[in-house]
Automatic annotation (TrEMBL):
It is found in: Endomembrane system. This is Cellulose synthase-like protein G3. Mn(2+) binds at K248, D272. Pfam families: Cellulose_synt. GO terms for molecular function: cellulose synthase (UDP-forming) activity. The lineage of its organism: Eukaryota, Viridiplantae, Streptophyta, Embryophyta, Tracheophyta. It comes from Salix purpurea (Purple osier willow). The keyword Ribosomal protein does not apply.
Length: 635
């Protein structure tokens, strides 16, 4: 084992494409683990020895609750939760990557099947003819227009002109969204009209044909300076109520196939609509890993951390997940590599088709990762193949979802797919450059933050209790370190049990005069103190070394408890009800639409439980009326 690593894609030695060096605190972490583990064993011994001394009051709970939840496989994506202008910004920034334009193809998956989103992208394609040359000529770093115009940028006549074009596009898109339909006055060509005609009267989100629309064709469409632009293709896969669609994993597999049939690039970037590129040179950085002759051929993906902008000062909803997305990644990187976290990840297309040593050929040769597409993307044969592979029964009797592509069976398709790839023997690397490659948006309402976590909890338990459990299958396939690393995440929602217990046990013990901790005068007390301070101390140091603030660390601790009693608890219940066939879970997307009031409240650090509920404020760390209870002061 190499231990935790830091990587850099550029080094002082110009001959090296990338370098790896062990983290300095690795030794400290190991020593700490070596002391901490026996201390926990000692604690267990102490408990076993004293078990007979404790007499707990008996609690009999008898409350049969005869309710049945209806199974639901509805799709929750919609343009009001994921505003098209945000998705457009995501796409524009990657179209503007510093990379030969004709070698980039951007495929947008609209799982909500919305004409409004297609409209936004038609407008984006027109705006791109101005935006891409502007970025390249002026060597702009911030290539998402919203971020660029929102930042402190030099005001030239050119930038003012581009800003006006952007604003007028935005107004148009928002107007159409408000109206809910694309009015005739906005349709400028027969080609556009033909595309919108697909939204016939029986077209619904859950039931509609595949829509594949080439909006920019890299072989002929030029920007205002006369240079070719990258392909931009809108896709909404076919849906009907009788075929399972497998949520995001299904959407990504459809994307893999459609992109395979049209351009089949060997490197694939998976990027969520709420993330945007923050560095146009990211593809070059990735090539330093993927194309270095010194890199072993079993490297499946390069994962960037999920970093966020717009988190409030104390991160009240603990949306940053420093440990998950930044700290733990370094540790994984020292073994087989970090997990795939759903976004900001560059894959070798080959890694979706079987283990490094034996290729699993897809059902049609055109989808094989090494197939070279030699026809123009708008040719009849290519378009009809693309529609065929985007149909909802295409996957029947194929290996998609089981051995090929993103894996089905968990609501955390990212975690599960990364895990299965590692089990197949693939490796990954974590790339965390100084200038963040991507920035994402966080949920800014409590209900969204808790719901997102509940979905993760269900998804993780689906993996934890499957035949591919990291604790058994994972440990066997990847060895104890990777296996346990993955298992620690998979069983995470089980924390709801100790957290809920500790939420009530001390009070019950106090009322019933039962001692659950040793007295301060007893030597055993030091064991408790060491375990408590050691765990918090190490967590604190890791957090601060990863650039965190004391305030956010405190939020992290606080929210962990809150989630234990809510998201993890209800997620676990939902999972077990699902096992009994009583309920089915769905992928409720996190809302990315924020109104001015919600955003103001969030920036001020107000914590609102629900629209209809009284407004509660959390005490801030350091404020004079700090209290040790959560959810105090109702307003
Ligand atoms: O049926 C679905 C559901 C979601 N999505 C897309 O999936 C992405 C992620 O959805 P989001 O609601 O933003 O989920 P988060 O909880 O914020 O996302 C985290 O957790 C997910 C797993 O639960 C990962 O897929 C994400 O990459 C990761 O950022 C979005 O672009 C959605 O449009 C679909 O395409 N189809
Ligand atoms: Mn998201």
């Amino acid at each position: 084992m190499k231990g935790s690593l830091v990587r850099g894609a550029t080094t002082d030695d110009a001959r090296l494409l990338h370098s790896v060096k062990p983290l300095r605190r690795t030794i400290f972490n190991r020593v700490f683990a070596a002391i901490y583990a026996p201390a926990i064993l000692t604690l267990l011994y102490y408990h076993a020895k004293n078990a007979h001394l404790l007499s707990y009051p008996s609690l009999i709970l008898c409350n049969p609750c005869p309710f049945i939840l209806r199974p639901c496989s509805c799709i929750h994506v919609d343009p009001y939760k994921e505003p098209p202008i945000g998705v457009v910004n995501t796409a524009l920034a990657v179209m503007a990557y510093d990379y030969p334009a004709e070698k980039i193809s951007v495929y947008v998956s609209d799982d909500g099947g919305s004409a409004l989103t297609l409209f936004a992208f038609m407008e984006a394609a027109k705006f791109a003819t101005h935006w891409l040359p502007f970025c390249k000529k002026n060597n702009i770093l911030e290539r998402s227009p919203e971020a660029y115009f929102g930042s402190n940028h030099p005001c030239t006549s050119e930038s003012e002109k581009i800003k006006m074009i952007y604003e007028s596009m935005k107004v148009k898109v928002e107007h159409v969204l408000e109206r809910g339909t694309v009015g005739d006055q906005y349709i400028t060509s027969d080609q556009e009209r033909e595309a919108f005609n697909k939204w016939s009267s029986n077209f619904t989100r859950q039931d509609h044909p595949a829509v594949i629309q080439v909006l920019v064709d890299a072989s002929k469409d030029k920007d205002v300076d006369g240079y070719l632009m990258p392909n931009l293709i809108y896709i909404s896969r076919e849906k009907n109520k009788s075929s399972p669609h497998h949520f995001k994993a299904g959407a990504l597999n459809a994307l893999l196939r459609v992109s395979g049939s049209m351009t089949n690039a060997p490197i694939v970037l998976a990027l969520d609509c709420d993330f945007r590129s923050n560095d146009p040179r990211t593809p070059l950085r990735v090539l330093c890993y993927l194309c270095d002759p010194a890199t072993p051929p079993d490297l499946a993906f390069v994962q960037f951390p999920q970093l966020f902008q717009g988190i409030n000062k104390s991160d009240i909803y603990n949306a940053e997940y420093k440990r998950l997305f930044q700290i733990n990644m370094l540790g994984f990187d020292g073994v087989s590599g970090p997990n795939y976290i759903g976004t900001g990840c560059f894959f070798r297309r080959r890694s979706f088709f079987g283990c490094p040593t034996s290729l699993i050929s897809p059902e049609i040769p055109e989808l094989a990762p090494d197939y070279v597409v030699d026809k123009p993307i708008q040719s009849q044969s290519i378009l009809s193949l693309a529609h065929r592979v985007a149909s909802c029964d295409y996957e029947n009797q194929t290996s998609w979802g089981s051995k090929i592509g993103l894996r089905y069976g968990s609501l955390v398709e990212d975690y599960y797919t990364g895990f299965r790839l590692h089990c197949e023997g693939w490796k990954s690397v974590f790339c965390n450059p100084e200038r963040p490659a991507f920035f994402g948006d966080v949920p800014t309402s409590l209900i969204d933050a808790l719901n997102q976590q509940k979905r993760w909890a269900v998804g993780l338990l689906e993996v934890a209790f499957s035949k591919y459990s990291p604790a058994t299958y994972g440990v066997r396939r990847m060895g104890p370190l990777m296996g346990l690393g993955y298992a620690q995440v998979a069983f995470w929602p089980i924390w709801s049990i100790p957290i809920t217990t500790y939420a009530f046990l001390p009070q019950l013990a106090l009322l019933n005069k039962v001692y659950i901790f040793p007295k301060v005068s007893e030597p055993w007390f030091f064991l408790y103190a060491f375990l408590f301070l050691g765990a918090y101390g190490q967590d604190y140091i890791d957090f601060i070394l990863a650039g965190g603030s004391v305030q956010r660390w405190w939020s992290d601790q606080r929210f962990w408890i809150a989630r234990g009693l809510t998201s993890y608890f209800f997620g676990s219940i939902e999972f077990f009800l699902g096992c009994l066939g009583i309920s089915a879970s769905g992928f409720t997307v996190t809302s990315k639409a924020v109104d001015a009031e919600q955003s103001k409240r969030y920036d001020q650090g107000d914590l609102r439980v629900w629209g209809a509920f009284p407004h509660v404020r959390l005490p801030n760390v350091g404020s004079h009326n700090q209290s040790d209870r959560i959810f105090t002061r109702a307003r």
